[in-house]
Design a protein that fits this description.
Blueprint: H1 9-18, E1 22-26, H2 48-54, E2 62-66, E3 74-79, H3 81-85, H4 88-98, H5 102-109, E4 113-115, E5 121-128, E6 137-142, H6 150-158, E7 165-172, E8 177-179, E9 195-198, E10 206-208, H7 209-221, H8 248-255, H9 258-262, E11 266-272, E12 275-280, E13 287-291, E14 299-301, E15 313-314, H10 316-325, H11 329-338, H12 369-374, H13 385-389, E16 401-404, E17 407-411, E18 418-420, E19 426-433, E20 439-447, E21 454-461, H14 462-465, H15 468-475, H16 487-500, E22 507-511, E23 514-516, E24 522-523, E25 531-532, H17 540-545, H18 552-560, H19 566-577, H20 581-584, E26 589-594, H21 601-609, E27 622-624, H22 629-637, E28 639-647, H23 655-664, E29 685-692, H24 703-706, E30 709-712, H25 722-734, H26 739-751, H27 756-771, H28 776-797, H29 808-815, H30 824-838, E31 843-844, H31 846-850, E32 863-868, E33 871-876, H32 878-887, H33 892-901, E34 917-921, E35 924-931
Parallel strand pairs: 5-10, 19-22, 22-25, 23-28, 26-29, 26-30, 27-28, 28-29, 31-32
Antiparallel strand pairs: 1-2, 2-8, 3-5, 3-7, 4-5, 4-9, 6-7, 11-12, 12-13, 13-14, 14-15, 16-17, 17-18, 19-20, 20-21, 23-24, 32-33, 33-35, 34-35
Length: 945
């Protein structure tokens, strides 16, 4: 771009003025100063006539906007070029998302955005419900020596202690102005232009004042200027005591956590490295404070509504003194001493690398020789963690602690006695991280409740391990050897034990469910080397049942004998198709096998389940319909891409339970539960294999659910297949849990190829086309049938299934939509047709009104009858139609889609949703279901007028 002024400057002024902004002319000399005296324009907007004068001709000139009330309460947030280059915009965006400000921040980023000549970014928003503050510097840092200008160096020569600062983020608010596009040429010292990179004045978001305040506070979080500390809020560390003991305040700094100190005032929102972001404890508003900023363990509060002084760093002891003792440090130190802080010998007790001070031995306990032999005692080499807990022999006990068969003990503050922490050895035996990045710890302890010592292990979140009372509440029923009164001591012991052995305690990957993980891996079994810890106790048994037994060749020999039985083969295909749901982008669905009880349905389910798990009755992998909805959701929640089996539909105690499950299953999550309770909207990805004497489809009235069910009433083993069923059952009980993992390995190898995912989807699309038919239900089920066919074809192709794939005609014969319940949309349409025929007097018409009959019927208007497109049109009020259908056992939302496809309903693309079109009757205008003549016909002889 040249120095010549753009000819669009006047047009730009007009655009900004039309958007309610106050415009100024800027000198083209690199000073960025206005051409005119502009103080009056802080409160009075400039006029188009002035713009004609300022921006006419070829005068080299720039253009600026005055921010604040005069421009409709617009505020600018500027990220300087160095801030953009150093990634601060990404940091701020991450914090905005973590603190609940992601949506308004995205609106700002996607609104009116300008790039400055230095590479910075200018973002704007209108502030509603409050004043725009004046210009603010939100974030800065000290300049590096290589960034110093000649002026900076001269300043340092004059004032050696001066701070050379580079502004990173600032605002232009009330009384401030900023240059805007298309300013260019010599307007800026670099000669570069201001460029619009997104939106314009019309796309600025309107945000409330509280939201903008929170956004500014987040921007302040990335400020990197060193903060001066004062003794009142962050006392300077005193030199060590000559006797080697700790002061209460120093001890408190080392042991207390910010979560404990700030409880009830702030809550942690997220962490980034050593820095933690805090918001109000009640969850209102955005970011209010940080800890760990710049690597310093200090609290820095932005908000002014707390007990803390804003923008002043606090140490833990300083914060405690303010909150508990009104800032009296002496009183705070005395209180901490009474609570056991301070006066702890610094020398080691638990480790052997240093000499520990003499400490009294615990009083002798009466015990038999056998009991004493069972107890592992602390020796000069430390407690035997390797023998008791399988930890590395290098694991050590932290200083000031000792571990014996009687439990964990800590040296008293006076150093004269031992205080009990737990009643038995309790340690951290492993740490875990799941694919989502959440951390967990495995706690193990020695239990003697059954006479002989045994190790018990439980996995809990790191958050729970850091909160003693919650930990004891969570694991109390499992026998955790601690009481609530020792909660704080327990959490401290665990933290110090892990800190002492951070590089010695094994760290592993953790899975919370079976199947596809968030990182793209697939966990088939808890025995694959990846720890599986389910969130619900009821899931532990089914998870353990997913384990291999026997040989793959033995399993293949068993299923090879089923080549002549299509239904068991289809069930096996369903088990193999489950891991294809995710790469194919399909939702969960149901395969139902129903027939007389003597025809081998349960055996067919066991054969399918053997692909992944132990199908025996004593294992927990096969479930029964005689249970609760929440229990079913937990069972489904165990898997992402594996088969789930429920047997015996006739065992259900309430038919509506099966209806609910079949309806909810394709949504891939459970029901929403009030209050966001644990277990709310549990996710899953599965193919549900069900059986019973009564078809599952007969339990539901939902057309939407029916479209996600494949059902067959063909007997799995025919009339004379008893011996084959018995042999199959015996074979899969001896060989199971092997085919599924082998199939997944094959699928993963294919997906790893450059064209693998697309090739898989294309094969599925081709099969889907082949299985589409003339009926709506057949078409909607075609992708599911195609998934089963694809799974069997792939498994036969790589030799996992020792037979040829079923002919496509066999698949069509099994799953052709022939059930009367498949015609549910038409049956629901008949219900409305009959109702309208019997309640025509409830339809409003203009001819009726012309006769002076304006009285609505007793039950209110059903809808309207009007002349449309050369004929009479029936338009029904949606709620009346919904009620009529519900009384007949139909759901309006489940059949509307099919009505539209059949041409029964008129649509208007401009409406949302398009099938609710506006119609006028009885002086009112309402959205109605407008039916075509094919939907609800109405001849002239039927006119109720």
């Amino acid at each position: 771009m040249t120095d010549a002024q753009t000819p669009d400057l006047r047009a730009a002024a007009r655009e900004y003025h039309d958007a309610g902004l106050c415009v100024l002319p800027i000198k083209a000399d690199g000073t960025k100063k206005p051409v005119v005296a502009w103080m009056d324009y802080k409160v009075t907007r400039t006029t188009p006539e002035q713009h004609d004068t300022w921006f006419s001709g070829n005068k080299p000139r720039g253009i600026a906007v005055v921010y604040g009330e005069v421009s409709g309460h617009v505020e600018l947030i500027e990220f300087e070029g160095i801030a953009i280059r150093e990634g601060l915009l990404n940091d701020v965006t991450e914090i905005m998302n973590d603190s609940g400000l992601g949506e308004p921040w995205a609106a700002i980023l996607g609104g009116w955005v300008t790039e400055s000549p230095s590479g910075g970014r200018h973002y704007r928003a209108r502030v509603q419900g409050g004043d725009v503050p004046g210009n603010l510097k939100l974030a800065s840092r000290l300049a590096r020596e290589d960034e110093y200008t000649d002026a900076d160096r001269q300043r340092l020569r004059e004032k050696p202690n001066a701070r050379i600062v580079r502004v990173l983020i600032e605002t232009r608010g009330e009384g401030g102005y900023g240059l805007v596009e298309p300013s260019s040429g010599t307007v800026h010292a670099t000669g570069k232009p201001y460029r619009r990179v997104a939106g314009g004045p019309a796309t600025m978001p309107v945000l409330d004042a509280d939201t903008m305040t929170a956004i500014r506070e987040v921007c302040r979080m990335v400020d990197k200027l060193p903060l001066p500390e004062v003794a009142k809020t962050a006392p300077r560390p005193a030199p060590p005591r000559p006797d080697g003991t700790l002061r209460p305040g120093d001890d408190y700094e080392a042991r207390a956590t910010w979560e404990e100190i700030l409880k009830g005032i702030f809550r942690p929102i997220s962490s980034r490295g050593e820095e933690t972001i805090w918001g109000w404890a009640d969850g209102v508003g955005g970011v209010k404070a940080t800890t760990g900023r710049g690597g310093a363990d200090r609290l820095y509060v932005f908000a002014t509504g707390s007990e803390f002084q804003a923008e002043v760093p606090y140490s833990k002891f300083g914060a405690y003194a303010l909150l508990e003792h009104n800032g009296d440090h002496k009183a705070a130190a005395r209180a901490l001493a009474r609570e056991g802080f301070g006066s702890r010998p610094l020398a080691s007790v638990g480790a052997t690398s240093r000499t520990a001070p003499a400490a009294p031995a615990p009083p002798a306990e009466e015990s038999t020789d056998e009991e004493q032999g069972d107890e592992e005692q602390e020796t000069e080499e430390g407690y035997g963690y390797d023998k008791t807990f399988g930890l590395p022999s290098s694991v050590r006990t932290p200083y000031d602690y000792r571990v014996t068969g009687r439990g964990v003990e800590v040296l008293s503050p006076s150093g004269e006695s031992w205080n009990r922490v737990t009643f038995a050895p309790l340690v951290v035996t492993a740490t875990f991280e799941d694919p989502e990045g959440d951390q967990y710890v495995e706690l193990s302890w020695v239990d003697k409740s059954l006479g002989k010592p045994r190790r018990i292990s439980r996995i809990v979140s790191r958050e729970t391990a850091k909160r003693g009372r919650k930990l004891i509440e969570t694991l109390g029923a499992a026998g955790l050897p601690a009481v609530e009164g020792d909660a704080r001591a327990v959490e401290t012991w665990l933290a110090e034990f892990e800190a002492e052995n951070v590089h010695r305690i094994p760290s592993e990957q953790l899975a919370r469910w079976l199947g596809w993980q968030d990182d793209g891996t697939f966990v088939s079994s808890p025995e694959e080397g990846i720890k599986v810890d389910t969130p619900f106790e009821e899931q532990r048994g089914p998870a353990r049942a997913h384990a291999p037994k026997g040989t793959l060749e033995g399993w293949k020999e068993t299923v090879g004998a089923l080549a002549a039985f299509p239904v068991p083969r289809v069930a096996i295909a369903a088990a193999l198709a489950a891991p294809l749901l995710r790469p194919l982008g399909l939702n969960s669905f149901t395969l139902d096998i129903s027939s007389r009880s003597t025809k081998g349905k349960t055996t067919a389910l066991q054969v399918a389940l053997s692909v992944w798990a132990d199908p025996s009755e004593h294992a927990s992998a096969m479930s029964n319909w005689r249970t609760t909805l929440y229990a079913i959701e937990k069972r489904l929640n165990l898997v992402r891409g594996m088969l789930t089996v429920f047997d015996e539909t006739m065992a259900v105690t309430d038919d509506s339970l099966i209806d609910e499950v079949l309806y909810q299953l394709p949504m891939n999550h459970g029901k929403a539960r009030s209050g966001g309770a644990f277990g709310n909207m549990l996710p899953w990805e599965t193919i549900l294999l069900s059986s019973g004497e009564r078809p599952a489809l007969s339990f539901t009235t939902s057309q939407g659910a029916a479209a996600r069910i494949l059902g067959t009433t063909v007997a799995p083993f025919g009339d004379n297949g008893g011996p084959a069923a018995a042999a199959a059952r015996e074979g899969v009980l001896a060989h199971h849990g092997l085919a599924g993992p082998a199939f997944v390995r094959y699928i993963l190898s294919g997906l790893a190829q450059a064209t693998g995912p697309d090739t898989l989807k294309e094969r599925h699309r081709e099969l889907t086309k082949e299985f589409r038919g003339s009926g709506d239900m057949t078409n909607r089920r075609a992708p599911m049938v195609a998934a089963l066919v694809l799974a069997e074809t792939l498994a036969c192709g790589n030799g996992l299934l020792p037979y040829e794939p079923l002919a496509h005609d066999v698949w069509r014969g099994l799953f052709t939509a022939h059930s009367p319940t498949d015609n549910r949309p038409e049956m629901a349409m008949d219900v409305l047709r009959e109702y309208v025929a019997g309640h025509a007097h409830e339809l409003y018409s203009t001819s009726r009104a012309a006769m002076g009959d304006h009285r609505p019927p007793f039950s209110g208007w059903l809808g309207a009858l009007s002349q449309k497109d050369g004929g009479l049109e029936v338009a029904l009020l949606p709620e009346r139609a919904r009620k009529v259908l519900a009384e007949a056992g139909y759901v309006l939302d489940a059949v509307v889609g099919s009505w539209i496809e059949a041409g029964y309903l008129k649509t208007l693309p401009s409406q949302r949703p398009p099938h609710l079109v506006p119609r006028r009757f009885d002086g009112a205008r309402a959205k109605c279901l407008a039916f075509s003549a094919a939907g609800i016909g109405f001849g002239d002889e039927d006119d109720p007028s």
